[in-house]
Design brief:
The chain contains 3 helices and 36 strands. The chain is mainly β. It has helices spanning about 405-420, 425-430, 435-445, and strands at about 5, 15-20, 25-35, 40-45, 45-50, 55-65, 70-75, 85-90, 95-105, 115, 120-125, 130-135, 150-155, 155-160, 175-180, 190-195, 200-205, 210-220, 230-235, 240-245, 250, 260, 260-265, 270-275, 290-295, 300-310, 315-320, 325-335, 345-355, 365-370, 380-385, 390-395, 445-455, 465-475, 485-495, 500-505.
């Protein structure tokens, strides 16, 4: 089944769009998988689609469930970037399935993606909301398969999936998915779980009543049972159902203080940040967590949130939802009186919007995935109801210099060049004008336009627009703007079916 890749500059970012030409279904799950190449796994309907991220080629389409749509994908990688095989767990509704994905040599004819079933489709009595493989040092071996995974359901129950070699797959498939423990009695819209280093499963449960329950269970390996549920805190503050929760990795400050954060989003359109560092203390049984920061920026409901970076000096959050946008938020952590942070009471965070990405059409982004690139920037992929998957790179590292300092430095370099290559009057005039104004002025005029238009809506035509693009300067509408221009297009649009019409934009 063919696919295509297109790259366009938009808002200073170069997104990569991957989409099937045959039909469009909502994209409901995404994850990156680093094999011999970087792959992007896409859940669309009941199918799993695997793309080569570098070239945008669709490598494989495989039905995972008989009729249930895919809602989540989690991989069992342990950080080996050169391995050629990995195990992934796919869930949707009440169904779950474990797969083994492998690749061959990309330069030869054997460069195919192969998917092998580790389990058949297994069904539980409730919907799954999140899953996580048990960490193991043996996963560095590319032939190893994770032995266990835990899953949390909408009724706040924890299940364990045993994948050890002595399990008879397919014969008694219901035997190795077993109920492990129940959390506080509640109905959930969202959940996120992670493993602590001591074998404890930490769960954050977002309820329909606006509460966030943080609890844990000490999980004994091999279906041998678990300790009773340990409730750590009940976070209250949202004024609507909690649609997304996320627990950060542990982060250490310059002193001895170690922190763990939780971010959440809700029907009330707010994004909130909580400090749950105390849950990592063995003696922590229950405490009342406080909201450190909250912000509102989306035009409608927010479906989910992700930590892009959990370092206290570089804390960033990605949110996406019903308005079809993905937004990045930076959290600045301050210390009282400049002293080292020793407890969550001394944290003084402020949350501000960093940027907004509006690469999708229509409403609802349902899924996102994040991967770290070699240069330290983050590769983000988002998918939504429009059937599109868009990936783009963003940098979460804040520059130590302010924009004013960077502008001054750049102007000094430009001025120095002008002094060497032109007369003094030209150099003095250029020094007095901002770089932004220079860019705007250089674009004023008419430009030959040839634009290929690929329609994402089957009922709307695709084709080619040929004509002129015009950029005109105008009076700035706000004092904070240095320059302002109006951009327009006009010409002849020729569709793929052969008819031609006049077009303006």
């Amino acid at each position: 089944m063919p696919g295509y890749l297109s790259t366009q500059p938009l808002h200073g970012v170069f997104p990569t769009t991957m989409q099937l030409e045959t039909f469009l279904s909502p994209v409901t799950a995404l994850t990156f998988l680093q094999l011999d190449r970087l792959c992007l796994l896409v859940g669309e309907g009941q199918h799993l689609k695997i793309f080569d991220r570098e070239i945008g080629e669709l490598l494989l389409v495989q039905a995972i469930f008989a009729s249930q749509a895919v809602h989540g994908i989690v991989n069992g990688q342990s950080g080996n970037p050169t391995r050629s095989a990995a195990t992934v767990l796919v869930w949707g509704g009440r169904s779950v399935r474990v797969l083994r994905i492998s690749t061959g040599d990309i330069s030869g004819h054997d460069g195919l993606v192969r998917v092998k079933s580790v389990t058949n489709e297994i069904q539980a009595n409730d919907w799954f909301l999140d899953a996580h493989f048990r960490p193991s040092p043996f996963l560095e071996d590319e032939c190893s398969v994770p032995e266990e995974a835990v899953l949390v359901t909408a009724r706040n129950d924890l299940y364990i999936l045993n994948l050890s070699k002595d399990t008879s797959y397919g014969d008694r498939q219901g035997q190795y998915l077993q109920h492990l423990q129940s959390g506080p009695n509640s109905i959930l819209y969202s959940a996120h779980l992670t493993w602590n280093g001591d074998g404890r499963v930490l769960v954050a449960s977002g309820t329909v009543t606006g509460e966030i329950l943080v609890w844990s269970v000490l999980c004994v390996s091999g279906l041998q049972g678990s300790t009773p549920c340990q409730v750590h805190c009940n976070l209250q503050g949202h004024e609507g159902s909690v649609f997304g929760v996320r627990i950060s990795e542990q982060a250490r400050w310059s002193g001895s203080y170690t922190s763990r954060m939780l971010t959440s989003c809700s029907d009330d359109r707010t994004i909130r940040l909580w400090d749950i560092s105390d849950v990592d203390q063995p003696e922590s049984l229950r405490y009342s967590g406080a909201c450190l920061a909250k912000v509102m920026g989306h035009a409608s409901r927010i479906w989910s949130v992700r930590f892009l970076a959990s370092d206290p000096s570089n804390l960033c959050i990605l949110s996406f939802g019903e308005d079809g946008t993905a937004q990045v938020w930076r959290v600045e952590m301050f210390r009282q009186n400049g002293a080292a942070v020793k407890s969550n009471d001394e944290l003084l965070p402020q949350m501000a919007q960093e940027t907004t990405f509006a690469f999708h059409s229509g409403k609802n982004l349902w899924a996102a995935a994040v991967s770290i690139e070699e240069n330290g920037s983050l590769l983000v992929a988002t998918g939504g109801a429009d059937g599109r998957v868009v990936s783009y790179s963003i940098c979460t590292i804040k520059s130590p210099s302010s924009d004013r300092d960077l502008l001054a430095c750049t102007m000094a370099e430009v001025s120095e060049i002008c002094d060497d290559t032109a007369d003094d009057n030209f150099a003095r005039n250029l020094k007095a004008r901002s770089i932004i104004r220079e860019i705007f002025d250089s674009m004023v005029g008419q430009w030959n336009l040839v634009r290929t238009i690929k329609s994402m809506i089957p009922t709307q035509p695709s084709g080619c627009l040929q004509g002129m693009a015009t950029v005109e300067s105008r009076q700035v509408t706000k004092d904070v703007y240095d320059a302002e221009s109006i951009y327009s297009e006009h010409g002849d649009f020729t569709s793929d079916l052969g008819f031609t019409m006049k077009a303006t934009r």
